[in-house]
């Protein structure tokens, strides 16, 4: 598998993921103004077998071209958005860290990593590239900005792409665009035949050192809306909260780390009809970990693994998985 790194203009329709979500395959077309997701009237997703864990994500598909003609198209796999700014957080380098691999009927596929920089929906990729800046911030980013000609730097500031988060005497330059990334490939779907497509990659896992579910946080009135939204996102029920509290015991200083893993399922609805057979397995990693995600008919199939199986499935929401590790001392 060869992973090429390209930059093109992306239409806002591609913006279907937010960190740390990854995504389903979807048909795509290169149109004026960028790469957009399209629906397929002839290609059926016979099955999708998805495995999600902290260490890896794998997804195996079977697609069938129901038409009488071979179909050659661009297929896109959107990756998480990266929101740049002053926060001291890890910003993934997809080209080096993702370890994305695709096989088609067991043979490695040639992939292209496509990126764009957007400010409030406006594409500033060409302007950023013309200035010689990377689309993702790196350790040398501020030095590169300081080395720019004043008119170039001022142009990026005017476009909202750059911001001085320091002051005039001690400037501290940060990117203020969102980096959008997708993995694309050219795919041939043979007439009247099925093919197997498999992806594997290392997910970018979000999280927090101290969970908002901690009693003294979740019971604060001013955090009520945030806690409710958190519980809704991961379908956290009272039994989960009870297990969370039991793991803490009476140690007020215990910290329980939250891990967040996302996967964009809704783009899987861009194929002809529903996914005929869908299987999801979530692995929480350690038997002592807690896990919660939104699904019906969840079955425990191993000490750390939970399975969901649907027939004729049309995904209407994306997958968000919460894993809570056992308490640790501050």
Strand content: 35-45%
Main beta sheet strand tally, sense and closure: 8 strands, mixed
Task: Please report the distance between the alpha carbons of the first and last residues.
Answer: 44 Å
* Count of β-strands: 23
Kindly state the percentage of residues in helix. Answer: 10-25%
Radius of gyration: 22 Å
Q: What is the typical, i.e. mean, pLDDT?
A: 85
Low-pLDDT parts are 1-20
What is the subunit arrangement here? single chain
Helix and strand pattern = EEEEEEEEHEEEEHHHEEEEEHHHEEEEEE
Task: Please explain how this structure is put together.
With 330 residues, the protein is an alpha+beta fold. It contains 7 helices and 23 strands. The strands form 4 sheets. Strands 1, 3, 4, 7, 8, 11, 12 and 15 form an 8-stranded mixed sheet that branches. A hairpin with a 4-residue loop joins strand 5 (43-52) and strand 6. It is flat, with a radius of gyration of 22 Å. The model is unreliable at 1-20 (pLDDT under 50).
Secondary structure elements and pairings:
Elements: E1 3-7, E2 21-23, E3 26-31, E4 34-37, E5 43-52, E6 57-65, E7 71-78, E8 82-83, H1 94-97, E9 101-104, E10 107-108, E11 111-119, E12 122-123, H2 125-130, H3 141-146, H4 150-158, E13 162-164, E14 173-175, E15 178-189, E16 194-201, E17 206-208, H5 215-218, H6 224-234, H7 238-248, E18 258-264, E19 275-283, E20 290-293, E21 299-302, E22 305-313, E23 319-324
Parallel strand pairs: 1-11, 2-18, 5-19
Antiparallel strand pairs: 3-4, 3-7, 5-6, 6-16, 7-15, 8-15, 9-10, 9-16, 11-12, 11-15, 13-14, 17-18, 18-23, 19-22, 20-23, 21-22
């Amino acid at each position: 598998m060869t992973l090429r790194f390209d930059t093109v203009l992306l239409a806002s329709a591609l913006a279907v993921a937010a960190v740390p979500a990854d995504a389903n395959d979807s048909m795509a077309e290169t149109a004026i103004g960028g790469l957009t997701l399209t629906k397929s009237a002839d290609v059926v997703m016979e099955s999708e077998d998805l495995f999600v864990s902290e260490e890896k994500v794998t997804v195996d598909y079977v697609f069938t071209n129901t038409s009488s003609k071979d179909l050659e198209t661009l297929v896109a796999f959107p990756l998480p958005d990266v929101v740049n700014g002053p926060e001291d957080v890890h910003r993934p380098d997809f080209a080096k860290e993702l370890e994305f691999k695709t096989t088609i009927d067991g043979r490695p596929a040639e992939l292209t990593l496509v990126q764009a920089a957007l400010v409030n929906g406006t594409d500033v990729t060409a302007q950023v590239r013309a200035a010689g800046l990377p689309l993702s911030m790196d350790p040398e980013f501020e030095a590169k900005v300081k080395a720019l000609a004043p008119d170039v730097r001022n142009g990026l500031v005017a476009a909202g792409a750059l911001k001085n988060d320091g002051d005039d005497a001690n400037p501290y330059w940060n990117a203020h665009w969102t980096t959008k990334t997708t993995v694309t490939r050219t795919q041939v779907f043979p007439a009247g035949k099925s093919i197997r497509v498999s992806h594997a990659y290392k997910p970018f896992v979000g999280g927090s050192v101290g969970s908002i579910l901690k009693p003294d946080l979740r019971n604060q009135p001013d955090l009520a809306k945030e806690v409710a939204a958190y519980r809704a996102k991961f379908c956290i029920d009272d039994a989960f909260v009870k297990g969370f509290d039991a793991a803490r015991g009476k140690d007020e200083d215990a910290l329980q780390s939250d891990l967040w893993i996302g996967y964009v399922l809704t783009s899987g609805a861009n194929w002809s009809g529903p996914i005929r057979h869908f299987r999801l397995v979530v692995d929480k990693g350690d038997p002592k970990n807690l896990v919660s995600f939104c699904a019906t008919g969840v079955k425990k199939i191993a000490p750390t693994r939970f399975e969901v199986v649907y027939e004729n499935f049309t995904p209407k929401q994306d997958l968000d998985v919460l894993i809570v590790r056992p308490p640790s001392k501050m």
